[in-house]
Amino acid sequence: MGNRQIKGLDFNETFAPVAKFTTIRCILAMTAANGWGLHQMDVKTAFLNGDLDEGVYMEQPDGYVDSTYPDKVCRLLPALYGLKQAPKMWYAKLDAFLKSQGFDNVDPDACLYLLMDDGEIIIVLVYVEDLLLMASSLAAIYKIKDALHMRFQMKDLGEAKVIIGLEIRRDKALGTLKLSQGKNAAQVLEKFGMAESNPIETPLEVGLQLVKANESDDALPDREAVGSLMYLMVGTRPDLAFVIGKLSRFASCYGKEHWAAVKRVLPYVKGSVDKGMVYNKSASDNLQGISDADWGDDNETRRSTTGFMFISGGAAVSWDSKLQKTVALSTMEAEYMALCEASKEAVCLDKLIQRVSMLVTQSDNLVGPVNIKVDNGGLQRRLHRLRQESRRAQSHPAHRHSLPLRAGCDHDGQGHPRALLNGRDGGRPDDEGARQGQARQACQDDGDVLT
Q1: Could you tell me the pLDDT band of residue 408, with boundaries at 50, 70 and 90?
Q2: Is CATH 3.40.50 what the domain over 2-175 is classified as, yes or no?
Q3: 1, 68, 79 from 56: Cα distances, Å
Q4: pTM of whole model > 0.90?
Q5: What is the pLDDT of residue 394?
Q6: What residues does each domain of the chain span?
Q7: Structure confidence at residue 90 (pLDDT)
Q8: For residue 296, with 0-12 CB atoms within 10 Å meaning exposed, 13-18 middle and 19 or more buried, which class applies?
Q9: Are 355 and 121 in contact (CB under 8 A)?
């Protein structure tokens, strides 16, 4: 049915959002910290609830042809499974219903809904037809359940056990909530014939360097295996982030050596099937970040790899490992770009956590800044130099709009100059000190440098 639809005639927009894995983990960490109730519901035949905006027509189905008008067609009013816009129409219907009940969307996730009702907080997370319900009391959970039952055909699954493959194990006495993918991991091992393999302690050989094959060996299930492992990594396994990021670069040009590297990951998974995130009520719920980078480790492009992780409630809620977009000419520059990526993620996470926290505490007071730890002496030395000059009252960082930016000299948001990748003349100095010296001289010529 959907393959016969014409864009602009039978459908326009088709995008339907789902809850982000990061949002799910953040909210579950807060659920463990606050001791909220956690239940799950499923919407039966969800897509049939959507109302179509466009005019979509279909032939009369066999066995239901109108004898009076056998040559006429039917105009669809509700959506059907198979229509390209069916997911979007379902999301629009559910979104309108939840907002009619007083819920508000929480930026930056369109599938997270919050409601404060008579002093009780209620949270709904939506992943297509799967709903996670969190509330400060069971009475509040049953209240929203009743409202959903009255509007849609629902299946009440009780306390949440599994959501989109994420297994939830909760110990209310200890105040812990474990998120894992043991069943999914076992299925991956069985699928690729590694269920009986001997466990190993590392997923990748130290210093392994792979190069692109001239052409892919389609007889090897390399792409399928990497994709299966990627779902584990995205859900609950930050320890797989680096190796999956490395192996996925060869998804279109792999050979036997790449498949051997993929097969090595599977025994590692075998020895850590039950690994996952354990969020603890007694742990700090303040968001803490860690940022790191190697330097030019990719032999083909000489680009560096960014890695970061954010922890809340005693376990990770967000992580990433990927190649940087440009070549870094120093370790400090690689660390700086990694910190930039981590900072962007911190803004999104902080916005989410602040919004929920302010609703819980009924206060506009911010929780506090997000600390990101960076292992780099160069960045630390620059920071301490700025602090030293500030204490001496010889300089005071301030934003300056009037100074032009020059090649070789850039100003950060506080008017402090920093060296760019290339020298003043656009060349490439032999070492970092020479490059910084050229940039410093360019800034001095402009009369804007801390001495």
Answers
A1: very low
A2: no
A3: 11, 22, 9
A4: no
A5: 45
A6: 2-175, 180-377, 389-445
A7: 97
A8: middle
A9: no
